[in-house]
Amino acid sequence: MDARFTDEQDEIRRTLRELLGKRCGPEELRAAVDTPAGHDPALWALLAGRLGLPALALPETYGGAGCTVTELALACEETGRALAPTPLPATAVLAAPLLLALGTGAQRAALLPRIASGELTAALAVPGPALATALALTGHDRRGQWAGGGRAGGVQARRAEGGWQLYGQADQVLDGHSAELLVVPAHTGGFARSRVLLFLVRGDATGLTRVRQTALDATRPQGRIQLRDVPAELLGCEDSDALPALARLGDTAAACLAAEAVGAAARVLERTVEYVGQREQFGRPVGSFQAVKHRLADAYVEVQAARSAAYYAAWAAAAEAPAAAPTSAAATEATTAVTAPSSAIAAATAPEEKAGALALAQALEALRRAAAEGIQLHGGIGFTWEHEAHLYFKRAAGDELLFGPVHRLRAHAADAAHVFEEAGT
């Protein structure tokens, strides 16, 4: 098995880390999250136009780079290191794959090249608390109850002259307040025959009201979307089944989000190691005390195990056959996985469709551990608003609220793999 990255993959990481190091430091980060959009449009123009991040996993036919989920996950890992607030997760990880999978030829030709160039940003308008369920990461909902159940709540769709109209509301939508295109799951057909379809809504559509919400993690800007008889275009055709498409998206999205969390965990751990090597107590560096070494070593093993699981999940999402050996990305420096907790090992042996969920659980747990150790070992300064440690801790907590919690990710993966069922049942 060749576990090395290709030269192109190494170049993606190197170039992106160098650019974000110059353009997304602590001051630039705080300035970006305080803008109405919650991100720096100039930085996004560089990431999209110069580096082509939203084009990575799109086919060349539509202006993409023709790469795989692996390259997109590596890009997410680097943006996670810097906690860069960008439309990349909402646009390239959540929305674009649905356009590619379900869109008609005309819809793909009209929208995907604009997404690939960075001209168009998009968001999946699933209410934040229901996002993990919609993506089949924490449970299966075969009727789409998370979308409103066909009764009150959620978004309802009805036929109107010349198309469709949507009515309803979705809260805590990633980049929902600023995206120029919304992919909106909505119920249609009444309660008895209700089914979920996906619709496209322009950001300037009549009857659409969007407000940015206060979020625990300011680097993950979220918005409230209200639709009052908003004109919408059906994504694909009426025969398209949105729920399986969202479930298939879940594993790919989980792999990218896991890589992003690993990047954040690795960076906050690096900062902590640097700090304890400089701070002195009782006439010697804090990092020289054995108790501190043990805590950092445990966090390091956990981060490396999460990295191993995230790389495998990205490869598994891109590969057609789960049993085939990865040839370009997968394990690389994560050799510590042989001593990793059982969840990381499970990600490498579970069915392909559950590798993403298990990797995400491992990565979120590693980020939470690394961020907590960072705050504790930074001492008094780690608890202050001025220091960046709290931003990593909020990313860990916020991601678990949106995509977890960790125990539900693992429990659902175990149920899907029939781990706790008796033989022969």
Provide the descriptors you would attach to this structure in a database record.
13 helices; single chain; 425 residues; 7-stranded mixed β-sheet; 48% helix; 9 strands; alpha+beta; two-stranded antiparallel sheet
Short description:
With 425 residues, this protein is an alpha+beta fold. Helices cover 48% and strands 14% of the residues. Residues 320-352 have low confidence and may be disordered.
User: Which ranges are low-confidence, i.e. pLDDT below 50, for 5 or more consecutive residues?
Assistant: 320-352
Q: What is the string of SSEs from the N terminus onward?
A: HHHHHHEHEEEEEEHEEHHHHH
Helix count equals: 13
| Strand element count | 9
Helix content: 40-55%
What average pLDDT do the residues reach? 87
Q: Give the overall form.
A: globular
**Radius of gyration over C-alpha positions, nearest whole angstrom:** 21 Å
Structural class: alpha+beta
Largest sheet: 7 strands, mixed
Task: Tell me the β content.
Answer: 5-15%
Distance between the termini: 36 Å
